[in-house]
Specification:
seven-stranded mixed β-sheet; 15 strands; alpha/beta; 331 residues; six-stranded parallel β-sheet
Length: 331
């Protein structure tokens, strides 16, 4: 089988398409014929050895897949050859065939394409856990979403509206603002590119404050980090919840006096650990996501697709922050 492999730490240009023997499903596992693999920010980090997990090389990036069951391992019930599924293996998805634990797979309805299915689980499951569990977002509250045109950002916009919140989207360009408004954002603001000096940070904080209104943002969804974090925190409401989702702009240092002055919480969001620790709650979230999808309240946005031999280009596009929604490699 063909696989896009990382043989040494480096950028997307270091990935090569190689031939590997087909894997074999063991007890409790499924062999999956991969049809699509979505690209996410962890794929940018993992090939550079900057992610919290460092698989032994050579390995394939690609943490999110959709495909068909090609073989069923011993002890697996409820799955048959040809069944359609989605899963988040973490890495290894940019291959023609992959072995996954049957417990991690979710059925993909026949009405949904493999490409859309591959783009659903990681971003929307992260965002629903962030907003509904960690953020305790309620109807009528104000939600500020940073990086609102990315995969998790657009998901947060849609899920915030589905919850009945007022959603303010913060993005870096007008085309991204248009995408956020199309996803349902009540308003969109365009912030400048960091890094920021002291005056720039104050100006950004004022931009956030004006956007969310005098009462502040009840929940702030931050998948960006870096110099954007403190200005956003300064716009939080009394008893607000600041959700730490990711750090493509760098790991920020927050002044904790702000949490005292606003009586607010800073809450981490680690969906992968949540899904492993509480699979029943995660499965209930996935069921909710499919229901909201059927109701037209959410819909994955795939802005571009690539063949396997150009999978490195897909990762490069995400690294350059040129992507609206998701990019997907089709096999």
């Amino acid at each position: 089988m063909k696989a896009l492999l990382s043989h040494a730490p480096g950028g997307p240009e270091t990935l090569t398409v190689d031939e590997l023997p087909d894997p074999v499903a063991g007890p409790g596992e499924l062999l999956v014929r991969v049809r699509s693999a979505a690209i996410n920010y962890p794929d940018v980090l993992i090939i550079e050895d900057k992610y919290q997990f460092k698989p032994p090389r050579p390995f394939a990036p690609g943490g999110e897949i959709a495909g068909e069951v090609a073989a069923v391992g011993d002890g697996v019930t409820g799955w048959a050859i040809g069944d359609r599924l989605i899963a988040v293996p973490g890495w290894g998805g940019l291959v023609e065939k992959i072995v996954i634990s049957a417990k991690t797979a979710f059925r993909l309805p026949d009405s949904r394409s493999f490409t859309d299915g591959a783009a659903l689980l990681l971003t929307y499951a992260t965002s629903i856990h962030a907003l509904y569990d960690r953020g305790d977002l309620k109807a009528g509250e104000t939600l500020l979403v940073l990086g609102a045109a990315g995969g998790v950002g657009l998901a947060a916009v849609e899920l915030g509206k589905a919850r009945g919140a007022r959603v303010i989207a913060a993005v870096s360009s007008e085309d991204k603002a248009a995408a956020a408004r199309k996803a349902g954002a009540d308003a969109a603001i365009i912030y400048p590119r960091g890094p920021f000096d002291k005056d720039g940070s104050k100006a950004l904080a004022q931009m956030f404050k004006e956007a969310v209104g005098p009462a502040g943002a009840d929940v702030i969804f931050d998948p960006v980090g870096g110099d954007y974090a403190e200005p956003a925190l300064r716009s939080i409401a009394w008893d607000g919840r600041y959700l730490v989702v990711g750090f493509p702009a760098g790991i920020p240092r927050l002044p904790l006096n702000l949490t005292l002055l606003k009586s607010c919480d800073v809450r981490g969001v680690f969906w992968g650990a949540f899904a492993a620790r509480n699979p029943k709650a995660n499965a209930a979230h996935v069921e909710t996501l499919f229901r909201l999808w059927d109701e037209g309240k959410i819909a994955p946005v795939v802005s571009a697709t690539y063949p396997l031999n150009r999978g490195g280009e897909a990762i490069a596009a995400l690294a350059a922050r040129r992507v609206i929604g998701k990019v997907v490699v089709e096999l």
